[in-house]
């Protein structure tokens, strides 16, 4: 995962009576010329999901960015008593621009509650254009519990295999095996049935082992 220097200004924090989630805060960072938004909940009660909004000026009205109705990444867990991590990537990023984001929750009674908001300024350094290598891998969140998202970029068409091994080197899961075209791909590993510990995501491309990414499962 390539990360760059950014300036983040946390502002416009609201308190709310919305009780569908025990909210733990929202964060933002620049990753590969995009803005990665992440937030987490400690518990959820009848939670349908989340709504993300965006604007480029603090004085203008909010525009919809994504919601649980059109993005599986924003679907809630219903009722759970364990911590859940969420993330969403905004690909529409321009240099020397400040973006404002806010996240709201929606419960099963269709009550909407504002949870948090922040702003992030994209500096010239943070959007330095990078020519990708033949392969690129990102994992988020890491550490995770129990779901993590694995993203990869392939510069050429090839046979690809993505496998998970535990710290002892035993194979525990095959996430994908087959021929893929060049481009970006995202996979989800749900390790709900696995014990806490260190795992490795091993990527084989064109019959060559290109990368081994360490994953930490914390329950």
Summarize the structure.
With 219 residues, the protein is mostly beta strands. Helices cover 0% and strands 62% of the residues. The chain has strands at residues 7-9, 21-31, 34-55, 63-67, 75-80, 84-90, 97-107, 112-122, 135-140, 147-154, 158-166, 171-180, 183-190, 197-205, 208-217.
Write up what this structure looks like.
With 219 residues, the chain is mainly beta. The protein has two domains: 7-122, Immunoglobulins (Immunoglobulin-like), CATH 2.60.40.10; 135-217, Sandwich (Immunoglobulin-like). 0% of the residues lie in helices and 62% in strands. It is built from no helices and 15 strands. It has strands at residues 7-9, 21-31, 34-55, 63-67, 75-80, 84-90, 97-107, 112-122, 135-140, 147-154, 158-166, 171-180, 183-190, 197-205, 208-217. The strands form three sheets. Strands 1, 2, 3, 4, 5, 6, 7 and 8 form an eight-stranded antiparallel sheet that branches. A hairpin with a 7-residue loop joins strand 3 and strand 4 (63-67). The two termini are 24 Å apart.
Give the overall pLDDT as a whole number: 80
Structural shape: globular
Instruction: Give the CATH superfamily of the largest domain.
Output: Immunoglobulins
Q: Unreliable stretches, pLDDT < 50, 5 or more residues?
A: 1-17, 127-133
Number of E-state strands: 15
> How many domains comprise the coordinates?
2
What count of helical segments does DSSP give? 0
The first-level CATH class name of the largest domain:
Mainly Beta
Which structural class should the secondary elements be placed in? mainly beta
Give the percentage of residues in beta strands.
Answer: over 45%
Rg calc:
19 Å
Helix content: under 10%
Separation of termini?
24 Å
Largest sheet: 8 strands, antiparallel
Return the CATH topology of the largest domain: Immunoglobulin-like
Elements, N to C (H/E) = EEEEEEEEEEEEEEE
CATH architecture of the largest domain: Sandwich
